[in-house]
Amino acid sequence: KDKSSMDNKEIEEKEKMEDEEAKKIVESITDSITSGDKKDIEESTRDIVKKASLAVGSLKETEFDIRFNPDDEDGDFYKKQCTLVKDASEFLLTVQIPSFIRDCLDHSGAPMEGMSLCDNLHNRGVNLRYLGVIANMLAKVPQLEYIYSIAASEVITRCAKHLFTSFMQNIELTYLSAAISHFLNCFLSNSSNLSVLLCSFPEERRHKKNKKGGKANNNSKNDSSAQEWASLSPKTLWADLCREASSYYNFSLPSALESQGIDAILDAYSLQKISLLRSFCLKTGIQIMHKEYSLEANSSSQIFSEEDILNIFPIVKHINPRATDAYNFYTTGQSKIQQGYLKDGYELISEA
């Protein structure tokens, strides 16, 4: 018993010694902080914050004050961003786009229509602003003439979508169907004189408002401004489309386009009006009536009327979830069919 009690006392004394040593260490640390080390720590933290603020482009050295100023062209950060963009563009032009063309020649990633072309470019990190450059490269490869037609069609419909967006800005809801049908007629018709037939509903509505004491002068002003879209003609539309393709995609459309209209596009790129119509409607969300339209190249009459426009839906950009295994089987099956292995391609597509 005496030995056990002695051992317990020794253990307690050791614990007390350790506690005292720990207290002394803590006191020494606090004393050093309160004396001179505190200043050193503050200076080091200031230096760290200052370096981090300069790295992220902060306007203040003591805190993160980040403001996006597009007019600031003198900073080092802006110059670094410019060089980074140039390097990325050079990489796309010298590596990614030529590898895409080689894959098309090998039939390992050949697109079948505009949507698959855009997916292939996005998967390689290529922005669609390079569509014109890609189309010009494809024009030099006779084996890829069909992909050249797809790329040219995509450029044309996307430029038409840009013009359509600005065209729809100041249109009243009562004239919406008439304006859309007029734009489609200017886009796909060869007629030089397109008359716009407006429904009588807006006139009747204004007449009723005037009877109830409505403001007739404002209505007449709104009517004149709302019908400015009716002055659009195929010639002006295709002239604007040529400028849009040149400035946005660096792609030159045929010089005979202004005189021949849509016929020059069909002949130069081996396209069909129905494919242009489908692609344009998918990009803009326009729903038209399901019927047989007179889309012949020699037809000079109006193709669409106000009753043909059923609805217009918003197009929201999002990532479509898809099964990667099924998509890989499907694309591999497509490449097998293009290489001539019909049975293997059919089995892969069926499995997908």
TrEMBL record:
One Pfam family hit: eIF3_p135
Biased composition (Low complexity): 215-226
Gene Ontology BP terms: intracellular distribution of mitochondria
Region (Disordered): 1-23, 208-227
One GO molecular-function entry: mRNA binding
Gene Ontology CC terms, in alphabetical order: cytoplasm
Domain CLU central: 109-294
Protein name per the record: Clustered mitochondria protein -like protein
